[in-house]
Design a protein that fits this description.
This protein is mainly beta. The chain has one helix and 18 strands.
Length: 191
């Protein structure tokens, strides 16, 4: 299992064998894969629901799909030019914004925001990264190296390295709680 997402009574599971939807009320499972759906791969890496109930699906080696419960919409390019390369993260904001992080082996290809018809690049102030997160206000946090932590408010990036300068190690992952509390998971140093 690579990822799990919840929508109403359904639990969605992304795995190496495809996408599964488990209806918790009726105790019924529906499986989607390359053989019985428009998915191009069985290896589903990341899933996320937006505020409109659309399921965003990132498959191994780049495919990105939006599924509204009936229609499967495939995205081949992010901004009309860049071909999808390994979607690592899908982020959705309370305002309905959808962001995808494209990269491979820690090298960031880009952070893109969906405008309803295409994805547009947002410059990120680092070339190596480990994780992205989004808070309830729609601000995006990125952990990486040089700088280790930065925040995007929709217009500008703010480097937050002074927040974590006293912590040992490098920031590996970030978690953001309901009250926008930020937790940094450090390499070799814990939480």
């Amino acid at each position: 299992i690579y990822d799990i997402a919840f929508n109403n009574q359904d639990v969605w599971i992304a795995s190496r064998g495809g996408l599964a939807k488990f209806d918790r009320i009726n105790n019924f499972t529906t499986c989607f894969n390359a053989a019985n759906s428009p998915l191009h791969s069985n290896e589903i890496r990341e899933i996320e629901f937006d505020v409109y109930g659309n399921l965003w699906i990132a498959m191994n080696y780049g495919d990105l799909v939006k599924y509204d419960g009936t229609t499967w919409e495939h995205f081949v390019t992010l901004n009309g030019v860049d071909t999808l390369v390994g979607i690592i993260n899908i982020l959705t904001s309370p305002a309905g914004d959808v962001y995808v992080v494209s990269g491979y082996n820690g090298s960031l290809k880009g952070l893109y925001k969906y405008d309803g018809s295409s994805f547009n690049n947002i410059n990120v102030p680092m070339t190596q990264w480990w994780a992205f997160g989004i808070d309830t206000l729609g601000s995006i946090y990125c952990s990486g190296s040089a700088p280790q932590l930065a925040k995007y408010d929709g217009n500008n990036w703010t480097v937050l390295d002074t927040l974590i300068s006293s912590l040992p190690g490098s920031t590996y992952d970030i978690l953001i709680g309901k009250n926008n509390n930020l937790c940094a998971i450090m390499i070799d140093s814990g939480l």
